[in-house]
Amino acid sequence: MADLNKIVDEIKELSVVEVSELVKMLEEEFGVSAAAPVMVAGPVAGGEAAAEEKSSFNVVLKDAGASKINVIKIVKEVTELSLGEAKALVDGAPKTIKENVPAEEAKAIEAKLKEAGATVELA
Known about the structure:
This protein has 123 residues and is of the alpha+beta class. Helix content is 47%, strand content 16%. The protein has 2 domains: 1-34; 56-122, CATH 3.30.1390.10. The protein is built from 5 helices and 3 strands; from the N terminus they run H-H-E-H-H-E-H-E. Strands 2-1-3 form a 3-stranded antiparallel β-sheet, with helices on one face. It is elongated, with a radius of gyration of 18 Å. The chain starts with a helix and ends with a strand.
């Protein structure tokens, strides 16, 4: 049997982007989803319905920050736009970069952009 503690220690050393890629690989390999199940509850005391956990997000670039070139490269990478289209999108901030992105992917994109100095919002 594998040493599970060793595996956990190795995962702790990965970046957010690497963990996101690992999760995708595991999901594809085993045909499963790592997303937390969304539970819809009936009315609660006081007649209020329980809030549903959001499972997809829009990634909104608020500001490119000081390192605009790096932000353009990341936008180009995650959107598969041409360099010119990515530059126009970044120049036009605030702009939505991707819509209806699964939570884990949205958080990975947000982390990349913030690391490059951009201001990002998940909506």
